[in-house]
Amino acid sequence: MANVLGYAEIRDGEAGKAAREVLGAAHGLAAALGGEAHAVVVGGPGVREGAASLSGFAAARIFVGQDASLQLQQPDVAAAAIARLVESGDYAAVLFPATAQGKDLGPRVAARLGRGLATEITSLEASGGTIVARRPMYAGKAIATLRFSDGPALMSIRANGFAPVELDTGGAVEDIEVNAADARVRVTGLEQGDRDQVDVGEANIVVSGGRGMQGPEHWHLLEALVAALGDEAALGASRAVVDAGWRPHGEQVGQTGKTVSPNLYFAVGVSGAIQHLAGMRTAKVIVAINRDADAPIFGVADYGLVGDVFEVLPPLAAAIREARGEG
Q1: Span 205-323: which CATH code?
Q2: Pairing relation of β-strands 61-66 and 37-43?
Q3: Residue 69 and residue 77 in contact, taking contact as beta carbons nearer than 8 Å
Q4: Which of the two residues, 326 and 220, has the higher pLDDT score?
Q5: pTM more than 0.90
Q6: Strand, helix or coil at 274?
């Protein structure tokens, strides 16, 4: 029991960043256990084509459950298919991305298997057949160390916590059973949000605004900064901003929003309430801009700038564009 299974999301026919990171984590753990990384993909017509590319990201075997009943996400059907695969494959661990879809499927699979689920894992290793995982707790003020002596260990991994592995295994695509009768709830429609922007939970760079922006009419300053930073940047917001109706809930960063771990995080006009810190303090580099020199956000920031955001943002965006050769 040394193999590790990773759930890979296929979006618009392609394996996205979340899928590649899950397989990177699965490959690293499987190598430590002396096994292989396997991928499982479940979805409607077209996912098979996207799944084939996963062999280039260390997936030695690729299991695909493709069925017309999954054209719209049917979590009970998908969870049942994955649980059957886990039971038949005798896996040491099963990994899910900590995305909206992964957070939906992971607990359902765990319930079907009668096991617990460790969430938001940021570190994985194995020693003597025991899997050791670490995750932040108490708004990131403590790190919990979890040890799994028997499998399968079910976990979700935090975005940007594990690097993809470009390794071509030549893994073949294999079919698994999908039974539409497993559905207890039927999804009848799907509303897509703004697909032009990178999801804040997966972005390498996040620019978040707080109440210091004073109103939605000033958000264009943050949008200009995001544009200057490039395609890997996304907009975020504090809970106070979302509660005020300035920005959509999908952009909320924090304990009641999304947990992000980007390489670079800008907190603009964000005071740094504990609920917000819980969602972003694991970012690699944190830049805080606030006129209040005593704002708690400066306590976790790597770089801090005390000043008026309305005076700071335009020249900052211009300097970044110049540095990137865009004038």
Answers
A1: 3.40.50.1220
A2: parallel
A3: yes
A4: 220
A5: no
A6: helix
